[in-house]
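Sample entry (247 residues):
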Amino acid sequence: MEIQIATIVSGSETPAGDGMSGALRCVLTLPDGTKRSAIIKRGPAGQIMAEAFSAILLSKWGLPVPPPFLIEEGTTLAFASADVGYPNLKQSLALDCLPHGPAREAATRIAATLACGLPTTPLAAACDEAIDNRDRNLGNILWDGSAEIWIDHALSLGQGAHMTDVNKLCAMAVAVGYDERLQRSAVAQGLLLERDAPNSTEVALTSSSIPATGVASIVIARLNSLGNRLVARFPRPVDLLTGHDRA
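Predicted structure, serialized as tokens:
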């Protein structure tokens, strides 16, 4: 996947809604003159870098993500991704329309169970661990009833260092009883991630003004310990006689 430089059609921006921080729907003009509906996000340069780098890298690793675009706005860059038209899992179950209480908790559990059972969730969990994505949630998993798309990676690659160190897909799996299944599958998927992909992603961004130098080495370091990192996201078996975790 390559990242294209696009321009916004003037007057096409409208609120994207559903808690997407600063996100707007818009129409882009691509380099070949064609038009494309997209979601644009503006923010700090580090977060734009994280979105762009992650979009290319995760695509190389086989995770379904929308085609990415960069928009030059004077001396700054914005990031956009193609609007695939899928609702996210919060929208699919109308979670935000439910009052706080048992009904909302039950619907959230159903959504989390659905998220854990998607075909590419083990790969997504491994990818999130590799890029240090601490912000995976039901609002950035798009699903049309048969296929899923993974979005919103602005708080990865060190941009979420202020957040709790958590792999939210693994945490969801523990909460809904999918932990053993997801742990095995995510570790297996992690072993298959192409180790040269971070470097080739960094090279792919050299022609842009994205400051991605050195990012590949961060991801590669996490890849070298990815299996152990994933295993550590799940509770260890408890020895019923001693009450201590087994080593």
